[in-house]
Amino acid sequence: MKFTDIFIRRPVLASVVSLLILVVGLRAIGALPVLQYPRTENAVVTVTTTYEVDPVVRTTPGGLLIGSQAVPLL
Fold first, then answer.
1. Residues 14-29 pLDDT 10s
2. Which of 28, 35, 63, 69 can bridge 73 by disulfide, Cβ–Cβ 3.0-4.6 Å?
3. Assigned domain for 17 exists
4. Is 68 a member of any domain?
5. Against a cut of 0.85, is the pTM above it?
6. Is 62 contained in some domain?
7. 4: domain range?
8. Beta carbons within 10 angstroms of residue 7's beta carbon
């Protein structure tokens, strides 16, 4: 008779042992000191952009005005 045969013949015992292992593991996680966790910092991202407008190309209510020529927008 092997050790695992006990749990095959008694499934309730297998469930109880499994739950016992789970409870002991949860207590172990709760007992870990905070120093075991890595130190984290919040990331700060700053984005700066500039948009330069070509003085020759301008928009009008009817379309684009390139130089002195109007281009209609569809």
1. 999 999 999 999 999 8
2. 63
3. yes
4. no
5. no
6. no
7. 1-52
8. 15
